[in-house]
UniProtKB/TrEMBL annotation:
This is D-3-phosphoglycerate dehydrogenase. Residues 1-41 form the D-isomer specific 2-hydroxyacid dehydrogenase NAD-binding domain. Residues 84-202 form the D-3-phosphoglycerate dehydrogenase ASB domain. The lineage of its organism: Bacteria, Pseudomonadati, Pseudomonadota, Alphaproteobacteria, Hyphomicrobiales. It comes from Bradyrhizobium yuanmingense. Pathway: Amino-acid biosynthesis.
Length: 286
């Protein structure tokens, strides 16, 4: 090849594979009519500069608008989609966290149902948020990227169901978790103010915002519970911020979801659990 180039039989040549690389010892390397490139085109100086600019631009887009492009392990989200997705991703993470904090046995299956406008969005990103919220109380450092992989490794079945609006809400996300002991469902939506809301817990209608510190109680719907429960919190100097109640039917199963100021001490929670009407009492943090 060198002889042919020097004799002008060949005007020029280009190679990107050599027996030994880098090919600095090759007789072709440095010839004025030869172009030598690495086998990986992206390793050229120009390509590295362009890649660096692309990465900087994509990070800037994510930090400023929430847009995600060309991610290996997360669905792409445009700048137009990001503002619409953001409140639903926050809702999904909290719904998953709610279910995860109440789960006390191995998770077999997670079913996520999307109804209404949210069903038309990038639900893969929302599903990842549900799984990260669900697994974090049990495993600690889990994020929206690693959560789907962790769920698969643990043998969890994850089903996504998309359907037209069948509820009273413009958009509704329902997370149903099946464990070795039971099945639990929780639903939520995003109102016009952009804040995520709990609207259904185990088939019981509620309308509650997620507070930083909350107490979740399942109890029998009998007179005296609310007074005794609130009295315990008052005696412990725990201030109630919001108080939400729901029940299946009069005298049947009921729930209380209470936002409080500050962390709930374990001894106070134990006293709540000991109330005769209470079936379960759990401290939640979001």
């Amino acid at each position: 090849m060198v002889d042919a180039l020097n004799a002008k039989h060949i005007a020029g040549a280009a190679f990107d594979v050599f027996v030994e690389e880098p090919a600095t010892k090759s007789v072709l390397f440095g010839h004025p009519n030869v172009i030598c490139t690495p086998h990986l085109g992206a390793s050229t100086t120009e390509a590295q500069e362009n890649v660096a600019l692309q990465v900087a631009e994509q990070m800037s887009d994510y930090l400023l608008t929430g847009a995600i492009s060309n991610a290996v392990n997360f669905p792409s989200i445009t700048a137009e989609e990001a503002p619409k997705l953001k409140p639903f991703i926050a809702l999904a993470e909290k719904l998953g966290s709610f279910a995860g904090q109440l789960t006390e046995s191995g998770i077999l299956k997670v079913e996520i149902t999307y109804e209404g406008h949210v069903a038309e969005m990038k639900i893969k990103a929302i599903t990842s948020a549900v799984l990260s919220g669900l697994l974090r109380p049990m495993l600690g450092e889990v994020n929206v990227v690693s959560a789907p992989v962790v769920a698969k490794e643990r043998g969890m079945v994850v089903d996504e169901i998309v359907r037209a609006a069948q509820s009273d809400y413009e958009s509704l996300i329902t997370v149903t978790v099946t464990t070795e002991r039971q099945e639990r469902s929780v639903s939520g939506t995003v109102y016009a103010d952009g804040k995520p809301r709990l609207v259904d817990i185990k088939g019981i209608r509620v309308d509650a915002e997620f507070g930083k510190s909350m107490i979740y109680v399942t109890n029998e719907d009998k007179p005296g519970f609310i007074g005794k429960f609130a009295g315990l919190l008052g005696d412990a100097k725990i201030n109630i911020a919001t108080f939400h109640l729901g029940r299946v039917a009069p005298g049947s199963d009921a729930i209380a979801l209470v936002e409080v100021d500050g962390v709930v001490p374990a001894d106070v929670l134990a006293k709540v659990q000991a109330l005769p009407q209470v079936k379960q009492a759990k401290a939640l943090t979001f």
